[in-house]
Amino acid sequence: xxxRAFAVAVAAVACFACLSPDEADxxxxxAQRVDPVVLVPGDAPTPGAVRLAAVxxxxxxxxxxxxxxxxxxxxxxxxxxxxxxIHGRRLELREYRTGSYFVDAxxxxxxxxxxxxxxxxxxxSSELSKAIAEEVEARGVVQVxxxxxxxxxxxxxxxxxxxxxxxxxCSSDVVMGALLAEYAVEDLGARRAAVLxxxxxxxxxxxxxxxxxxxxxxxGRAPREFFYLALETDFRPQLELIADYRPxxxxxxxxxxxATLIGAxxxxxxxxxxxxxxxxxxxxxxxxxxxxxxxxxFAELCSPSAEFERRYQRVFGAPTQxxxxxxxxxxxxxxxxxxxxxxxxxDEALEExxxxxxxxxxxxxATAEVEGASGVIRFDAHGDRRQGVALSAVERGPDGRxxxxxxxxxxxx
Length: 413
Known about the structure:
By secondary structure, the protein is of the alpha/beta class. It is 42% helix and 19% strand. It folds into three domains: 1-35, no CATH class; 46-171 and 306-377, 3-Layer(aba) Sandwich (Rossmann fold), CATH 3.40.50.2300; 173-300 and 389-410, Rossmann fold (3-Layer(aba) Sandwich), CATH 3.40.50.2300. The protein has helices at residues 2-16, 21-26, 29-32, 63-82, 102-114, 126-139, 173-186, 202-219, 236-245, 256-269, 306-316, 324-341, 347-350, 354-366, and strands spanning 38-39, 50-57, 91-98, 119-121, 142-145, 155-156, 161-162, 166-168, 193-198, 224-228, 249-251, 274-277, 296-300, 370-372, 375-377, 389-396, 402-410. The chain has a seven-stranded mixed beta sheet, sandwiched between helices. A six-stranded mixed beta sheet has the order 1-3-2-4-5-8, with helices on both faces. The longest helix has 20 residues, at 63-82.
């Protein structure tokens, strides 16, 4: 029944795009309603277990990243239980696999909380994580995201108030952009910079603004700004203007697909500046079909662990491909460390007094110092991990294909 419900929900999403003009024009609420896409756990919770919910997309545009994240979570839970659980209690993973739309993640968070989850890990997209954050903050349940970088995930800019129950085990996009700007000026000696970003995408905009502000502070000259629209594939008009400006560095805070096209077209135009990018570049396909003519660097949210890579490969038969699995693993370690610090829990603490236990867990996570697979994890007052980013250099391997090699750590380790 669960799988059938999931299939029906997917079909509803697909059919939404197929509404007739008459249906769309008359605003028929029943015709246009789209049910959230959520695959809930098929079994009942185990009495006496510590319930941890994982909310990640496994359908549509964020699915690949979601599965990598979920596998990292599964690995952590399996290892904790193999070692005896938490004070003798089993850590039970409750998986809520969703579509890639914010209403899917929001609905999954509600279901997980109602199902008795002590905490939630997820999601891998800032858009989805913010939807979860609204629910956990209102209901007093800890959320730990692995790779959501939006600054306003853990606090609300309009009010200046923190989301006390929301944490992330990676840096924010604002930190990333600032550190890349400092690297451009202090390490690369850049004095002129161009920024080419996707104007309608929050991730790209936030990274661009952070880089621009810090570059101007450190170099004494504001970067020249250029932009493009979603789904744009011909960047030559912007690149010709950038070439005329003669920058030392070009910052492209977009996806690896955009960076690859931009890099190849920059080569055709003879643009020789150093290219920089954010964690959106992190993909094995980066520059496979062409890249910039000169040096290229991008920020990654962790420094990959060879030991973790081996464990992941052994269990799942595939490489981790970035930091999503590693930081998903560490998100679980943070929650487990918080639960462990509460001491042995009674059945009442996990049932009728669950709300009180959830609040205690929040305080424990906020003050935790956890030795994770990605290093020491500590949170600031906003719930952001106090750390910088890893800088990867893109080089050609023995077979001629581009490979990313971590060169140094930027900011607080």
